[in-house]
Please model this.
Amino acid sequence: MADLAWPNPDDCTLIGKRVPRLDGPDKCAGRAKYTYDINRPRMLWAKFATCPFGRARVKSIDIAPAETMAGVVAVEVIAGAGTECKVAFQEVAVVAAESEEIAREAARRIKIEWEPLEHNVVDDDVAMAGNKAKAGKEALTEDFAAAIDGAAVISETEVGCSIITHCCLEPHGSVVEVTEVDGKTSVMAWCSSQAVSGVGGEFAQAAGVDAANVHVSCQHMGGGFGSKFGADLWGALAARLSKKTGRPVKVMLERDMELALAGSRPSAFARMRVGVEDDGAIIAWESAAWGSGGNGGGMGAPSLPYVFGNVEHKKTQTTPIFTNTGGARAWRAPNHPQMCLLTMAALSDAAAELGMDELEFVKKNLGLTGRADVYAEELGIAAELIDWKKKWMPRGDQRGVLRRGLGLAMHTWGGGPHDSNVQCTLHPDGGVEIRCGTQDLGVGARTTIGIVAAETFGIPLNKVTVLIGDNRYPASGGSGGSTTVGAISTATRHACVQALNKLCEAVAPEMNAAAEALVAKDGMVRGKESTAGGVPFADACRRIGTQPIVTMGQTQRGNGMSDQGVGGVQMAEVEVDCETGIVTMQKLVAVQDCGRIIDLLTTESQVRGAMIMGVCAALYEERIMDPVTGTLLNPDLEFYKLAGIADVGELVVHMMQTPDHLKRGVIGIGEPPAISPMAAISNAVANAIGARVKRCPMTPDRVLAAMKA
Amino acid sequence: MSQTDRPQDASSVSRRGFLRGMSASALAAGALAPAAQALAATVGANAGPGATTSAKAAATVFGPAPIAVNLTINGKTRELRLEPRVTLLDALRNHLDLTGAKKVCDRATCGACTVLLDGKAVYSCTVLAVEAQGKAIETVEGLAEANNGAAPIQKCFVANDAQQCGFCTPGFVMACESVRRRNPHANREQALAELGGNLCRCGTYHGVANAVLDAIHGTTGGK
Ligand code: FES
Ligand code: FES
Model:
């Protein structure tokens, strides 16, 4: 029998090792079916007519030109005459047609007369945003003024970052098939969703049935990053149109709508003052921040200063700006990357002002963080990996055209597990099936479950069938906030240990042993003390009779199973061409704790992926709005820039896996490494050129402007 | 796409001829200036099912109605009836259920739709199906099938974890395969330079770089 507790790391053959993902072969052979890939007999394609302005009223709408087109099956008006659209690309009408081409053309033929209205797409300037900027209350500690005035040095920083979008490569969307048999309506929905267990209700409502009659499937999804929890209007429309036409309907957003509407990360800007003592101790922090998450305002927690929250004297104030742009959605560690940039830039500038090495400066102030020991250790490792001591030069000391710089940043995140249920079925022939209503966003959820089950039963990974991405499997939480791995790994362990123990009880008599004395290892069931012999796993399973063993497991919290609260450090090295303003990534180092790792290979991939997303935000991507029309100026991947394979430099990942980290149990990893890169790169550029580039992405024009200032 | 009008040839479509064909449908959208509409109307009137010849340009005009299109995909001939405006990507995905190649940008910027056309990596979202006639089209599915489920490059992708969500992966696999075939001695820099036309949002470049070098040199241990 096995304890619930995670096995000793030295005994593990899979947990903690580099295990290739289970669905890798399907993905790279093109066999993996994503929502976008679902083709159904008689399926209709839906496309939208949208609003071309930041804000405008529909004066009139004529759908006849679309309705009368051959191949068009249904047209529905979403925003009728008199409706005010509040953001560019907002849906005005939808067409369902026999083919994608016809649907697109028909949507274009819809005639809409517009009355453009006043709009605001300015998210970076409080004065220009006028009454769309709503100044928040000032938070002030006692004696703030005296404290900052008494500081040996006061450094000032202004920095910020643009709105970026999630830009999932598979856009948002669903394929929905509403069928009626004998008066009973049921719904089959393929949906690119981070919350498979929970999303059925939205389709149910749209189709007018109970959620019990909705079957949701998402076997593979092309990214989510926090933007794909609901079915959204798009999924609901697919259901409605399918019900209306009696045919399956595919609604997948085109790239422009995806970039305009389907999720963004708020911008954030701040003017900051940091008061420090001669020895580098931070005594006072002042910040006035502003930014926008679109039509909902934006700029939420965490507060400033980030990580170094225990500064004694603080004065902070935030001004959210309301814009006519697609709203913010949770974006990998919501608001943390922005707050990290603002804070770490201000600290880096303070260190430069003092003439101190930035690394020494943050070390001096670790007492102001909640995890001083973790950071101290991680800073040491990161410094070594990037060769900080040898490479660091005081800011602005370089004179050549090509200048190198180093920068660092630190972050924190929770990552505790959500509630998850897992069912384990152990068949009499030794087959193992695990069912869980979770989803794999590309992080390796499927593989995580397989590893834990195989390790628990002591069998090879390919003997485990992992079934996920279906709302008919035991419910599992939405994948957001790095909550998934702690949930599904512990729930799988819980389910499998129970099944294994039942198996041990069934075979104990024939093996002449106490069930407690049996273990499953190396494909055998054998006595605890023996290293060889025993009964092959499949043979043992034959003794359980004709009925499979079925057990249910749930998320396990604490007791070394799972935990929350991590810290990470990243250091960047860049090269800046001072004539062109082009910044080239040389190296980015991430040192990260996340408790006990289940699959080191996919974990490292995820960390590198987060670092690359950070490189994109630091150097390339931003949403650009047209102040005149209020529409999105870069609604495509040509001008909405992402880093390419040769743009990211060397990426070094070091996962903290000491016994102290392992004994905390499993902690999520999706968000934390996405937080620091932008800040570390901004600091590295400042170190190289001797000036702060005021805004990320640090495009060549902004770099040159900073150097001139 | 060819920049000049070609002689009549059922397997090739001229750029101007194609644009004319488009005009007929664009006309109905009311998107053209009156003069252009008049021209398009003439062409549109002629453009019945199948192809007609415009005397002035001596170019073959197809569509807008569906026409017969023969494609050679993964060594097999497939006969389809497609509107001439259908891209190769849409023909594969929407008409043949070959959904390995993905549609991401639909504008020749991301590479998710990469297939091999006569051995050369192309963005299938930016090639018309009619243009691909008479050429060997190789898709990610075909590459796997021809190699017992997984070609060496695909095995290297798995071993090096060169995919996360996997949506960019089929395009990357084909782009890497084309690098491997054309430059069997490519070093890291050369290989990465050739992969600059493919984008990944999950940030799986490290794995892709290792995978392609693994496939070329067998250096990183993946098999
Ligand atoms: S979909 Fe063809 S290049 Fe992006
Ligand atoms: S793996 Fe997700 S886009 Fe590349």
Notes: The mean pLDDT of chain A is 97.
